[in-house]
Specification:
2 domains; alpha+beta; globular; 23 strands; eight-stranded mixed beta sheet; 2,3-Dihydroxybiphenyl 1,2-Dioxygenase, domain 1
Length: 550
């Protein structure tokens, strides 16, 4: 974590004619204040954590945070919360559920630089609230008095009081002197000096202070591998402007501050003997960014190498959104507010959304039903990512165990084997081929290659369902794969209204016996469908009558 904070230089505003020219010629959607709803900043950090309630309480007690918005799940747990700290807004959601953030968004804590009126007092408050000390309050060469703590969800909070603003030249000069001095001190002494001692006392009445001009109360700090590339991405996607930076003796960027609209993002590299702490590793962030045009911003991000995993679409909570990941692993939700919803209407829409998706697993479709459906099928359409990035589909035969893990075989000469060895992510569609049965399963997971006794056990289960398995096993170049699920969606359009149920995260990790899934037999399907793709018109309507008789 590079705790550098510097005075922000005023931004030069472009004239309207120049702005129009950039928009028309370069396709740039220059962001405006009008695109940011009242109460938000352009860039709002999104924290995906295991204990949402615990983090909300920590922000309230340590930083005088105020809950301004929240949505609850059907079981009463917080699904999404928005907490205001000073003039900043933090969005928080739980991991391993289909939240307002991406359903596959795992636990992703963040790193932040928080300005306080009294760093020592706020440090003591954070410690009383259960945080772990990372650095005791100390004065720094760059003009701030700082301390650092880690909360119980793994978020790192650098707390600072600005003692003296420094100009760019003076800041770089002090940094150079600091590096020269640091190079002559043993590393163990530096670490000892940085650790400091645990603070005592209460000091529960101090408030988060007004941040220096150009900063927010809470400023995200991204520790990334390729700092210049991230800066160029922010410039090209969000019209960002670098307002300050410090360089290392070899000329590499040690710390940069980048203004995105009304927000400021701090950036630094990992794994260097940096100005502050070498313990910081690669820590990308997740953000919810308000923009004037979601579709145009999405195209700009894609042109700069971002992976688009959520194409532009309308969300039930009133925003048009899209999602992508940059080359450094930061995740960006971009949004345009289409409807301003009050708390009651927002909660009502959320409940309607969950009702349609039957998100409360077990109320409409149990895991037993899901497992029974999977075991009534023998074949699935598998999709993996080809070498050039395009999806490639194939037909496979499979079995499924009580943990919803799929097991299948394939020959080494096939595209899918090469794809899966390069990228273990895989998806399947199961069902949908029987006329009159509008039930399907979409399945996403990660493959691995079992061995030893585990492999033999899986093969015996596979052979019991697929009689041609032993014959195939004796052929050269056969490989076996197991798939561990991350996300499964069961869709039943036979029912009215339709049943659409998502199983993921904790819903998949729970003891399967609780839902009766473990007791589900691997019964023969009513109609055993065995595909013969070369002959079957249902799959290949272009076959000639002569070819069909082969």
């Amino acid at each position: 974590m590079r705790q550098i904070s510097v005075t922000v230089e005023p931004l030069r505003r472009s004239g309207s004619r120049l702005t129009d020219l950039r928009t028309k010629v370069l396709g740039m959607n220059t962001q405006t204040k009008e695109s940011v709803p009242i109460g938000y900043n352009m860039v709002n950090p999104y924290l995906t954590v295991g204990d949402v309630s615990g983090l909300v309480e920590f922000l309230q007690r340590a930083f005088d945070g105020v809950i301004v918005r929240q949505i609850k799940q059907p079981d009463g747990r917080i699904e999404h919360a928005e907490v205001q700290v000073g003039n900043s807004l933090l969005m928080i959601g739980p991991s391993h559920v289909e939240s307002l953030a991406r359903s596959h968004d795992e636990h992703r804590p963040g790193t932040f630089y928080v300005f306080a009126a009294d760093v020592d007092a706020v440090y003591r408050r954070a410690m009383i609230c259960g945080a772990s000390a990372w650095q005791a309050p100390a004065d720094t060469f760059y003009g701030d008095r700082v301390a650092a703590v880690t909360d119980t969800n793994g978020n790192v909070w650098w707390i600072a009081t600005r003692a003296r603003p420094l100009g760019a030249e003076e800041l770089q000069k002090r940094a150079d002197e600091h590096w020269h001095k640091r190079g002559s001190v043993p590393v163990d002494q530096i670490a000892k000096a940085q650790r400091g001692s645990r603070a005592d006392g209460l000091g529960m009445s101090e408030q988060i202070g007004t941040p220096p001009v150009g900063y927010k109360s809470v400023n995200s700090y991204l520790t990334v591998v390729d700092v210049p590339r991230l800066i160029e991405f922010l410039k090209g996607t969000f019209d960002a402007v670098v307002t300050a930076q410090i360089k290392q003796p070899d000329g590499k960027i040690e710390h940069a501050e980048v203004r995105v609209g009304d927000s400021l993002v701090m950036v630094g590299p990992p794994l260097v003997d940096s100005i502050i702490r070498t313990q910081d590793r690669h820590r990308p962030g997740t953000f919810y960014v308000f923009v004037a045009d979601v579709d145009a911003t999405c195209r700009r991000a894609a042109a700069l190498g971002a992976e688009i995993w959520e194409p532009p679409a309308e969300a039930f909570y009133g925003d048009r959104i899209a999602g992508f990941t940059d080359a450094n692993g930061n995740r960006w939700w971009i949004a345009t507010r289409k409807e301003a919803l009050g708390p009651a209407e927002l909660q009502e829409r959320a409940e309607q959304h969950w009702h349609v998706r039957t998100q409360a697993v077990g109320k409409s479709v149990t895991k037993s039903v899901l497992l029974e459906f999977l075991r009534s099928h023998r074949h699935a359409v598998e999709a993996s990512q080809g070498e050039e990035g395009f999806p490639e589909a194939a037909l496979v035969q499979f079995v499924v165990n009580d943990r919803f893990e799929l097991f299948f075989d394939s020959f080494d000469s096939t595209r899918k084997v090469a794809n899966l060895r390069r990228d273990p992510r895989v998806a399947f569609v199961i069902g949908g081929h029987t006329v009159g049965d509008a039930r399907t399963v979409q399945y996403e997971g990660m493959v691995d290659v079992p061995d030893g006794a585990e492999l033999e056990y899986l093969k015996s289960s596979y052979f019991s369902v697929h009689p041609d398995g032993p014959r195939r096993s004796r052929q050269r170049g056969i490989s076996y794969f197991r798939v561990r699920p991350r996300w499964i969606r069961y869709t039943n359009f036979n029912a009215a209204p339709a049943q659409i149920v998502v199983f993921e995260g904790a819903a998949l990790a729970d003891d399967q016996a609780q839902g009766g899934a473990a007791a589900s037999p691997y019964a023969e399907p009513q109609t055993l469908w065995r595909p013969h793709v070369e002959q079957e018109r249902y799959f290949n309507s272009f076959l000639s009558s002569t070819r069909a008789t082969l």
